[in-house]
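Pinned message: reference record for SnoaL-like domain-containing protein
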Amino acid sequence: KTLNAYRDNLVASNVEGCVNLYASDGVLMAPGYETQVGHDAVKQWYANIRKLVTLDVEFDIHEAVAITEEYGFARTSSAGTLKINATGVTRKEANQELFVMKKVEGEWKIARYCFSESKLPE
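Predicted structure (tokens):
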């Protein structure tokens, strides 16, 4: 549920929606950027990215494993398009992602998130 909501908010460029899916001490590790720790830093990162690009991607969830009642992880991949907002140029986009999830007040939240570019699907 959380991963699908993340994808929907990401594609909608909904910064608040993305950030609200993170634990309050959530960490975002994006290639080429400093590690973002906590809601304020994560929110600023998404706000900046939203200005630069618009994504239209689909997520494939390859694994979603609850390790304990409080922690789990998910391994996903995404593919679609990325539009550079300043120029309107659109290109294909593909990533692989790893989420560490934490249950907060009965809901799974993103505790740690990292991704990297992957080979485009054929």
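Pinned by admin. Summary line: The longest helix spans residues 39-52.
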